[in-house]
Amino acid sequence: MGFMKLSDAINGTEGRAYAIIGGVREEMFYLRNIEAKVEKDKAEGKTLGRRGTQHKAKGWKGSGSANLYYVTTKFRQMMLSYIKSGVDTYFDVQIVNEDPSSSVGIQTVILRDVNLDSVIMAKLDVDSDFLDEDIDFTFEDIDILDSFNKPSM
Questions:
Q1: Domain that residue 120 falls in
Q2: Of 66, 99, 105, 135, which one has the greatest count of Cβ atoms within 10 A?
């Protein structure tokens, strides 16, 4: 019987993320965490001969959230551009998981056409050691450039 070695679990701090905005690739060194998920949109229906409700996928939507240290104005500038001119910004985010202590190798995912839902425009907090901010977003497409290997036994 096989088992996974705990040393192959991916350390959450062993990775990188990049924002690709207007063709410029910038490391998101201020990122604390990011999570992106895909949710299927399903239709429900019944057919003759079955009593239960069945489901059929008819589409999907991508959404996510990130928490980052409050040290960049980039996302506030993007939101301000939309507020003042109506010009919205879509960009890509590349997320790399690469834990050198794991035998599974590297995974690289690119979220395409990321669009911000909300941005904190200004913040003060006398009870906080470090200011941070949460950003919610959607994305329109996704690619997996590198896939994890099977863990070694």
A1: 11-34+62-146
A2: 66
| Mean pLDDT, range 122-142, rounded to an integer | 97
This prediction's pTM: 0.90
- Rounded to the nearest angstrom, the gap between the alpha carbon of residue 116 and the centroid of all alpha carbons in its chain is 12
Q: Which residues contact 116 (CB under 8 A, 6 or more apart)?
A: 75, 78, 79, 89, 135, 136, 137
Q: What is the dihedral of CA 131, 137, 141, 144, to 10 degrees?
A: 30
- Total structural domains in the chain? 1
SS3 44: strand
What string of DSSP letters covers 86-105? -----EEEEEEEE-TTSTT-
Question: 42 is written with which tokens?
Answer: 């399903």
